Amino acid sequence: MNISITAATLAIALSSSAAAAAPLSVPFDFSHGAIGLDVTVKGAPLYMILDTGVDPSAIDIARADALGLKVDRAAGGEASGEGDAKEAKVFPATIDTLAIAGRSFAPIDALAIDMGTLSASYGRTLDGVLGFSFLTDKIVVIDYGKRTLGILDRAADAIPAIRSCAKRWSVALRSFEGDSIPVIPAFRFGAASAPISLDTGSNGGIAFYKTALDLPGVRGALTEKGETAITGARGGARAKTYVLNATIGFGPFTLPAGEIVTLRNEEGSTDTRVANIGNKIFAAMGLKMLLDYRARQMTFYGDCR
Predict the structure, then answer these.
(1) Position 63 in a domain
(2) What is the pTM for the complete model shown?
(3) What's the CATH number where 180 sits?
């Protein structure tokens, strides 16, 4: 099962007002391939994932109602993205009194949505998604090897976590116009390179958009494998899968040929992104990922002892 929650940028964009947090390090649950976090809202224990692509954040509408969170049902809209559902309503909401490991955060803008289908596909109940409205003023370090998330005051606070890493690569934290998902500008597929989106909400690996097939050597490097189920904000769908018989990577980080890719219906573009890359790839590379949303910079570390 391939869940790509952040492939779906939700339709209503709201502003962010999250406050900076003091340095904090917490374990995350990677048993379902995403960055799962135990949090509390109004003192109630919830399970959410950290997602670099959703804008704003999201919360299950039934959970929001049960907790008495503010949900504006007069301003509802439609979610966009993965899935074949004819209707997927979302409503502006606010997640307040959010805490992680006892550390409180300022209220964040969100969308309330029925997360039942996502939960069923994911394999456990998802109460919400911490997306761009949470991350926008944060500095976070994701350690795939140790399965820990750091929320930092300063980028220098990451030094204890990354000092043992032999490889380092840094690039501006940018997206394409009209979106907030980070883009790695020159991700390699064999001898070709093109921009991809960095998706910590996906428990998959490589999701190609149609434009990727036109990259030099890519179409010929694909061997059809079958189909897989994908799930997004608009429910479930099916996608073809292939084996990519070419190395992949970015900066000094490389994986050998043989990764499984899915092919999505979105056209994509070499001016925006030709693929969406999920946690499976970054974990296989053994990366530590420093995302500094304040300074708009991201740095990746590898070969860590």
Answers:
(1) yes
(2) 0.87
(3) 2.40.70.10
